[in-house]
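Q: Could you write out the predicted structure for this multi-component system? I'm mainly interested in how the pieces pack against one another.
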Amino acid sequence: MFALVDCNNFYASCERVFRPDLNEKPIVVLSNNDGCVIARSNEAKALGIPMGAPAFEYEKIFQQNNIQVFSANFALYGDMSQRVMNILSEYTPNIEMYSIDECFLQLTGFDAHFNLQQYGNTMCKKVLQYTGIPISVGIATTKSLSKVANKIAKKYTKQTGGVYIIDNEEKRLKALKWLKIEDVWGIGRQHSKRLHAIGITTAFAFTQLDNAYVQKQFSIVELRLKQDLQGIPTLGLEEVQAKKSIATTRTFENNYTTVEELIERISTFAVSCAEKLRKQNACCNSLMVFIHSNRHRKDLPQYNRSIVIKLPFATNSTIELAKFAVQALKLIFKQGYAYKKAGVIVQDFVTENNIQQTLFENRNPKHISLMKAIDQLNVNFGQQKIRLASQDQKRVWKMKQEKLSPRYTTNLADIITVHT
DNA sequence: TCTGGGGTCCTAGGACCC
DNA sequence: TCTGGGGTCCTAGGACCC
């Protein structure tokens, strides 16, 4: 059996743990730059705030309904996630952390009399008691069916107590007939549109399609999903593996029009990628830079371009990566556009001690110890203390975060005070 | 005025090999 | 007149997830 454990309205719940006065009150969490809604409490959902709602359009509605608004506090959410996962890891060593707020547990070795319902219930109780985060648990014979079970558990919390189990054919069919095709895990916007066009509106109807047809019209991914939904275990638990790409991308608060402004941003993004690379002891062999104009401004000329450059040697040096990223930027920059978003993505990794030397040009060996020193200084004296000259020296943080909550669990100065 | 960020996987097609 | 077969690797683009 697989269990899918999912935290309810995770970001909103994290904020609420430290603000119990907000229990049963509507909460939304905004994306970077306080741009759009990325999490909603049940109360906010009931008020009709959609996922992705632009904050500026909904400002009035937030006020009218007394909705508490938060800027995204990823330091807090990441730490709370760790705490939840640690507790769930005690239940089985076979655990896959699928995202910041959900994980799959593979449950083996339980006999037919084992009470899964009770098992799920204690899980919910323990996580709630230890962390303050409410969770839902879906249990079934395959991964995708446990996702379905979880949806039911969450939707009908009152009846299910937050735990639902699909353990026989009758329940499986009932669940799949209930589930709309667009709500199936792995079926996104494009696929559900195409499926609707041929009259497929439920998960059940999807499982009735011909295997060859599904593979031909879609891909092997959708075929695997179909079989998994039929109750044939096709998707297994996945090992956590090293990342294959690392990105730092941002939407800007304002438009940038000059290459100098973009050089500063791109350098900073490359620096951030280099730091993340060093954390996972990897070097990259290629790098992508992209720049976008504001796609929402239909009245302005649009320009979107990206470029991938192969590096002459694998590196994770801040200095070298920033240099290459700026070179790449200069190849695609065009005068006359208002740029609103840009990013750097590094890929093609090799582990640090496994670098293929090249004949003519290699990474500067001095950079290895230099980067160690920089990383250590930034750890000891705060992030971004040591910067490249090409980065902005005046402002450390340009992101709009007007409603940021304290880092209650990761910053000593932010620990909550208990009034006695 | 104001609209997020970070990932993974698969496929088709082209370039290349013998 | 008539011009093969089998394979690998790489990349761009498109789909998906949270």
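A: Regarding packing and overall arrangement: Residues 38, 98-102, 185-191, 218-219, 221, 308 of chain A lie near DNA strand C (CB under 10 Å from a C1').
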